[in-house]
Amino acid sequence: MTAETRIRVFAPGKDWVQGAVKMILDALHASGSHTRLVLSGGNTPAALYQELSSPVVKSHVDWRHVRLTFSDERTVPPDHPDSNYRMARETLLDPLGIPEHRVIRLRGEDPAPAAAVKAHASLVRWAQRVPLFDVVLLGLGEDGHVASLFPGTPWPDWGLRLAAATRHPDGADRITLTPHALCSTRNTFLLVAGESKADAVRDALTAPAPTPERPATVVGAPVVWVLDEEAASRLPEDLRRTAERS
Question: Model's pTM, two decimal places?
Fold first, then answer.
């Protein structure tokens, strides 16, 4: 855990959702115009996206000036139940009326290497402004993975590539933003809820140094871990004392 890492802990459920949404909104406001936002996939962020797109909350951001992409994608069509894009479209993009031309989609319907090449080429156009992203939203798997960067799976030397093909330990191909891309950001939020993630949270926050064995340790700083009490339940005492509670 570095000096640029903060831990915020909220009560589970509604308090965690509202606390996370407020922090995300504050970061989007601070980014000014032409904000670049990375959306996480998986199950955890769906409730956050629904809150962000709710009638009361959505007016707090001028979404006309927000451009979006994704941390990762499964190799499935965009209308597939497992598609990260589909989940975000239904819970956030469509309710906010965000048009497709403001979204860089990781094309899960294509072979993963080809989809990664296309995503990299699209993101390179953003690279004229550094950092690449203003706000990055990431989840954490029970195994400790972030985006589709999996522990225990060797990562090739991606160099300056912004997107790459990876493989889930079960053998399924994925497309992911690379550590190089994820480190080019003004704000990173690791959004973690549930006791099933508590061991992974503890292991990442107590790792002595960044390592691919703990993918969350290699993402860009500053990082805010937005935890509910269950996800924070196995933190060591020194980290529990420094955590900000709401």
Answer: 0.96
